[in-house]
């Protein structure tokens, strides 16, 4: 899903309360990034003109591709045909609305609507909306006090944004994990690690590592459950289990894990009551089998042995050394010490998460192309702006356009638009001398935000006047294409920029 949240709102509420919805989205995105270090990809439709009785395809696609639906509820919202259609389309077409007991619909109440009496024609739709919220006990985020919405400059607004941001982070994390498990229930997408039981000589290290990993999870550094300790079907006494039942239990835990950690010392440790196979050997054998079935599964081992090591154990460790030479999935831990192992594992987990994010981006790149076209309201009647708009649509891009309605010094361009445009494949910025200094300045700030986009040429800056090009000198540290729209043939330059094959 390319969007984290789809913000559904009545344009009347935004216009009647000094662009309240736009300020709300900007502050939520900024707070989310400050707390999590992650971008919040928001879909916010700024167009207030829709024809017909069916949602446009771009809105349907965005609704179905969003993790969370955030309706900004009010009497104006429920009385809007378009708002009700967005809510019900998400409910009917975006997958399960309730996942693991958590609602993917996260309502914000900007004005009380409890006494709203719907018109006869909309009564059924309103009933479905309010019925869903009531039946599923969906929690509201209230953003009003007394008779008015809480203003963005008030302290109460910041506090409620913070609470909403924290809850949203936890919800998105849970949804991401649920989707990952559903798509790939095997080790490559699991939410657990397997910390193998050890013999007595390694028990202190294992106990310390278990405690450290649980502490890291508590503070949000990792998301992994630790198996077999935290398995819901963990038997009361492992030693009493027949070998077949013990093996089946261990196999289930390994199948649910992304990797396993094995610590070996001089002795073999506990053995199964019937086959007499050491538990440490059994776990390693099953881990190797899991790795054979799942190429992304990894085994990490460490040894602490002396010259007094038992012969059978020494032979077993030699087998592991031989496995390491021919098995890429087997890796030796840096030291037989809690902190060293913990730091090593945290680095491996971080690399694994980064790889998964890169793969997710690669999948998103195959989705319909999206382009952020940045200009202000003064540009709308300009022939060059109209021509650019036509060329972009001709190349079959879904276009998202922020509208700068007034020179509002309170708008933070970085917080307002950075996270939104980063979900798009590319961006086109129009710079003209005819626009105000404020509008050009906000565009330059957006260009600076492009440092988070990968080259080549995620952004094109279209310049209409010679003087406007001087603004580009303010931008540093990014590759972007400059298109001089005063020059003949600029249309072909733009088409080459928009054509993804030109920069494969």
Brief rundown of the structure:
Helix content is 44%, strand content 15%.
Structural account:
By secondary structure, this protein is of the alpha/beta class. The chain has helices at 11-16, 20-36, 57-64, 75-79, 81-93, 123-135, 155-183, 203-218, 243-255, 279-293, 311-326, 338-365, 383-394, 413-421, 437-449, 490-498; strands at residues 3-8, 42-44, 66-73, 98-99, 102-103, 108-109, 141-142, 144-145, 148-149, 192-195, 225-227, 259-265, 298-304, 330-332, 370-374, 398-400, 426-431, 459-463, 481-484. The protein folds into three domains: 3-180, Rossmann fold, CATH 3.40.50; 187-360, Toll/interleukin-1 receptor homology (TIR) domain (Rossmann fold); 368-504, Toll/interleukin-1 receptor homology (TIR) domain (Rossmann fold). The strands form five sheets. A five-stranded parallel sheet has the order 2-1-3-6-7, sandwiched between helices. Strands 11-10-12-13-14 form a five-stranded parallel sheet, sandwiched between helices. A five-stranded parallel sheet has the order 16-15-17-18-19, with helices on both faces. Helix 8 crosses helix 12 and helix 9 (243-255) crosses helix 10 (279-293). The protein is elongated, with a radius of gyration of 28 Å.
